């Protein structure tokens, strides 16, 4: 393993992570809710009282790079994967996060911060599966 | 979730994603590529987010349902499928939504496929939980 010091951004990544954690913490404190993006997106299909709140949170996420771009340059954002990989990846992410009850935000940020053993198993599983996928794509074929 | 507060949380969370570099698929893939030139930044994103969210979640313990404890096949299989999709493209649900704000056609395709994956899971789990009509018990009298 070699660390690429050219692309390593310790301070902006740590500080960005803190902002992510504070947003999740604020939602838990004020609304008693877990900030899990996959669950919130899937919940848009549920016609209950919280639907408008979920739609507003999704709208905020979509707006955020526009606002960020006003004050600082956005990082390189190109999606390099081909169209077939994009479609397959989207299907797997959608189905997998529902079957596994969470993604990087719900299991990763919130679950680990709550010391949930279920979330720890989920995070280890999806990180290892993602690393294996990248290994196969970049080094094995 | 009050819509105005949820919108603010979404914006702040998304700004954290932008600043941290999580929104850049290439940066995510370089983190997942442990056999290549490894960029460890995203470990700091997770660490910072967990540290910042830890205290808020401590404070709401008891006010929100405790995380489940069951480690089962759907958790592991779902997380593994999600991980493969994440590794194929470098996008998980949160950054995929922020990518929409940059009007990238591949981001729209990814999110559309993700929604289809979620809908497929909904259909599939409904079919799986549909129980056959209970057999009429023999009357012992």
From TrEMBL, chain A:
Signal peptide: none annotated. It holds the Pfam family Sulf_transp. The keyword Cell membrane applies. Its main location: membrane. It is found in: Cell inner membrane. Keywords: Cell inner membrane, Cell membrane, Membrane, Transmembrane, Transmembrane helix, Transport. Belongs to the TsuA/YedE (TC 9.B.102) family. This is YeeE/YedE family protein. It comes from Siculibacillus lacustris.
TrEMBL record, chain B:
It comes from Siculibacillus lacustris. InterPro entries: DUF6691 (IPR046513). This is YeeE/YedE family protein. The keyword Transmembrane helix applies. The keyword Membrane applies. The lineage of its organism: Bacteria, Pseudomonadati, Pseudomonadota, Alphaproteobacteria, Hyphomicrobiales. Pfam families: DUF6691. The chain crosses the membrane at residues 41-61, 73-101, 107-124. Keywords: Membrane, Transmembrane, Transmembrane helix.
């Amino acid at each position: 393993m070699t660390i690429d010091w050219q692309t390593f951004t310790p301070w902006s990544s740590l500080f960005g992570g803190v902002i992510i954690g504070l947003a999740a913490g604020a939602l838990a404190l004020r609304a008693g809710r877990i900030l899990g993006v996959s669950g919130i997106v899937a919940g848009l299909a549920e016609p209950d009282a919280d639907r408008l709140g979920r739609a507003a949170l999704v709208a905020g996420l979509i707006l955020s790079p526009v606002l960020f771009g006003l004050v600082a340059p956005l990082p390189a954002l190109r999606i390099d994967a081909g169209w077939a990989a994009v479609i397959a990846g989207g299907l797997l992410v959608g189905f997998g996060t529902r079957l596994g009850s969470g993604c990087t935000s719900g299991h990763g940020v919130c679950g680990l911060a709550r010391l949930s053993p279920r979330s720890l198993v989920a995070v280890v599983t999806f990180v290892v599966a993602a690393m294996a996928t990248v290994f196969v794509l970049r080094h094995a074929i | 979730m009050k819509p105005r507060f949820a919108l603010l949380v979404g914006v702040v969370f998304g700004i954290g994603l932008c600043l941290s570099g999580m929104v850049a698929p290439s940066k995510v893939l370089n983190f997942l590529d442990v056999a290549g030139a490894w960029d460890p930044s995203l470990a700091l994103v997770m660490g910072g987010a967990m540290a910042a969210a830890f205290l808020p979640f401590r404070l709401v313990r008891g006010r929100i349902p405790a995380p489940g404890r069951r480690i089962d096949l759907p958790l592991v299989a779902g997380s593994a499928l999600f991980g493969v999709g994440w590794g194929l493209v470098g996008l998980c649900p949160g950054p995929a939504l922020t990518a929409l704000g940059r009007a990238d056609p591949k981001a729209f395709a990814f999110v559309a496929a993700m929604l289809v994956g979620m809908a497929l899971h909904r259909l599939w789990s409904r079919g799986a939980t549909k129980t056959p009509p209970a057999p009429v018990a023999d009357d012992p009298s």
